[in-house]
Give the backbone structure.
Amino acid sequence: MGAALAGCLDGEALWASEGRSEASAARAKEAGIVDLGSLSSLLAAVDGVVSVCPPGAAVSVAEQVSGLGFDRLYVDVNAVSPATTRQMARLFSRFVDGGIVGPPPTPSGQGPDGTRLYVSGREASEVAELFAGSPVDARVIGSEPGQASALKMAYAAWTKGTSALLLSVSALATSEGVAEELFDEWEISIPELKNRLEQVSERIGEKAWRFVGEMEEIASAHGDAGLPDGFHLAAADIYSRLADLKDHPRGQPPDEIMKMLLDKPASQDVWS
């Protein structure tokens, strides 16, 4: 997502490869992003920073940038709770909150299957302008940090939360030996569910490890609003059991996913 988003910016995109993987370097090179090596060199050269990373690393990245005395615009577009966003906003004099909905942007452009970037904050309009004419549909939704993140949390709470629930109920039926009967009932009463299960199983392997932190942030957002957080803590558990598929190619059949959910305890550290 980071490399694809950077490739849509109006202006030269720069990055720091120090401490990053070969795969990240390859994606950045393909997107035409210029490598300045170290974070300190990067911060000295840029007008603003756009942070795109796993949710569990968002605060650490913000603290690193702030700790180096960065005093220009910081844009966090990570899947974190409004409270986490406001925590980061206090580190900077200029801060814009962002939330991404959809897949990494492609030249095919905007539309219901495209990439939308919701932004909020005093300089949100300026950030949206950076993506004018690109495949990214940037939309200003407020003047306060936390608003864009709240929208992202609510959206992903449904899309990724219900995917985790679908995997869980299918694993339950598998465990009790009634999976085929459940699928037959779905064909009668909820025909779209079996197809969705196949789609989720096909795609989840390479993404599940990233969804753990996102579900935990969504749970935190619910708790902060006085709502139950257990739905999405359970979803985080489901995704953590699939975290070992991080480096596997996509395409696991549903029965393999069910076996992993039933046989593997929740991972204790999916970020290593």
